[in-house]
Amino acid sequence: MKAAVVSSFDTVPHYEEFPAPDATAPHALLVDVLAAGLHPRVLAQADGSHYTSTDELPLVPGIDGVGRGRDGVLRYFVLPDTALGAMAEQTVIDTRRSIVLPEGCDPVLIAAAMNPAMSSWIALRQRTHFPAGANVLILGATGSAGQMAVQVARLFGAGQIIAVGRDAARLAALPALGATATVLLDADDAASARRLADAAADVDVVLDYLWGAPTSAAMTTLATHRADPRRPLTWIEIGSVAGSTTQIPSAAFRSIPLQLVGSGQGSVSARDILAVLPALVQEIIAGTFTVDVRPVPLADVEQAWADAPRSAQRIVLVP
Ligand SMILES: NC(=O)c1ccc[n+]([C@@H]2O[C@H](COP(=O)([O-])OP(=O)(O)OC[C@H]3O[C@@H](n4cnc5c(N)ncnc54)[C@H](OP(=O)(O)O)[C@@H]3O)[C@@H](O)[C@H]2O)c1
């Protein structure tokens, strides 16, 4: 069969022959892949930099997707850490890590939306208490996951939804998705901090997709500009597009009731991740979310890899 194959962590995947898999284990099912999302997590898997990387090569990347099994059923699936990922004509899924999809739904839409949408859905449902009316700030709101976070927060009945990012044009599109305020981070750090301080005095939860220097700066600003310094603030670390480490200001922890938690594979169990998927799929199929997606043939995987880091759209590979 044809697949996107990583033979070295220094080069992008190539479209080439790969041995067709067998599905022999209990609960294993061979599926014809219809769509597989090219998420940042997949880029990190393919260059060996993700924290789950085992260095095993060759590797077919892809952590989730939509496929049709030999039983004729359409499914969304999440793969375990495996060298045989979703970016192939066929893969092997564990049916316990899949959900059945209704006929007629769009595989490309589902493959594009599930990973970015589940980041905020899981964070707000499983890593904190987020009642309707609570206020959320999304740090790094202009990417696929940030845009979905704005919409998930709206669905969950958030009060204020403050979208923060550095791309003015993409930021300007977020009020239409539900953002009640936007804050531009630009080269003028002092002006960025002032805008953030003005907008975010009553925030209850931060969904952080950036980490690195912007997180350190934002944490200082938020901690020192609370309307009520006794109001708890939960900071949920989800992504790290601006750096894998950050400096945590000690004063932030001493001056306000600040709680820092992570949300992702490991800090949330596979069982808890799977538990949210049916409700999320239903919302995606119902058209609750605007999803910006670009389908690309699997044969064009090298071009997809070149485009992905600066693409405003979520690329989905279609075998
Ligand atoms: N833990 C989880 O459950 C989970 C699930 C999904 C995703 N994630 C993580 O969340 C992060 C975002 O994912 P994504 O799917 O949204 O990625 P994406 O679509 O590639 O978006 C990343 C966004 O970050 C912006 N950005 C990059 N560097 C920035 C900086 N220094 N300051 C401000 N904005 C910056 C980019 O905008 P520019 O145009 O300005 O560069 C882009 O809009 C990734 O780290 C991903 O691995 C985690």
From TrEMBL:
Pfam families: ADH_zinc_N. It comes from the Bacteria. InterPro entries: ADH-like_C, GroES-like_sf, NAD(P)-bd_dom_sf, Zn-ADH-like_protein. Residues 146-219 form the Alcohol dehydrogenase-like C-terminal domain. GO terms for molecular function: oxidoreductase activity. This is Quinone oxidoreductase.
